[in-house]
Amino acid sequence: MLPGRGRDGRVTGLSRILGTRTAWTAVGDGAFFCPRCGGDRNYQRLTGRRRLTVLGMPVLPRGTNGPVVECAACRHHYGTDVLDHPTTTRFSAMLRDAVHTIALAVLAAGGAGSRAALEAATSAVRAAGFDDCTEEQLAALVEALEADTGRITGAPCGPGLAIELHEALDPLAPHLAATGRESILLQGARIALADGPYTPAERDVLATVGAALTICADEVTRLLVAARTPS
After folding, report:
1. Contact present, 173 and 199 (Cβ < 8 Å)
2. One-character DSSP codes across 165-219
3. Distance between the two ends of the chain, CA-based, in angstroms?
């Protein structure tokens, strides 16, 4: 029989006398995605000190607890790794920036001079959250991107452009399901196909996108073929 608990599982007198209590101290705060609430909430980052209590009074230190993250709404405690998950607001911004970067990369691969490709890219970027995006803005950004990376339109995806894609996609990929990662790649594929079959430069860009999204090369090939086939 465990000390402080009777044969029938009820608490005995000893456990009413002795116990432990944790005193929490806030050491930081911010906003996070609360899994229990299912949305963005404020939080406090807490550290705790445990003390042995006698008749409810703390008498001896028993070590430390935490750090933990406490939701300001539901008061549930989480490990600090919960902060690795982006807030809904941050996730939306990451997704918007990812689509924008892919659209620019595909256009830089050869579609910037095509009205159909610019229309497809503008539509994708607007749907991702840049409501006021225009074809003229994208064309100007492609020119700026080429000047910044030293890349010539229609050339293979060079180191500068690959870095831009990885910076936009690497932080996002772990938070997307497989279907979400595929959907982003397919958006780039539809932009590339808007003015005709894939060019070698467009395939190179889309392969870089797939790698950044942790999609294997064989699956990237399958998806690019599927995007080319009318549904």
Report:
1. no
2. HHHHHTTTGGGS-HHHHHHHHHHHHHHHHTTSSPPHHHHHHHHHHHHHTT--HHH
3. 68
Cis peptide before 86 (omega within 30 of 0): no
* Residue whose tokens read 């090939």: 221
Residue 207: count other Cβ atoms within 10 Å of its Cβ: 18
Residue 163 host element (H or E) = helix 159-169
**Cβ within 8 Å of residue 30, ≥6 positions away:** 42, 43, 45, 83
66 Rama sector, left if φ>0, alpha if ψ -120 to 50, beta otherwise: left
Write the pLDDT tens digit of every residue in 81-126. Answer: 999 999 999 999 999 999 999 999 999 888 677 899 999 999 999 9
Q: Return d(Cα 92, Cα 180) in angstroms, integer.
A: 13
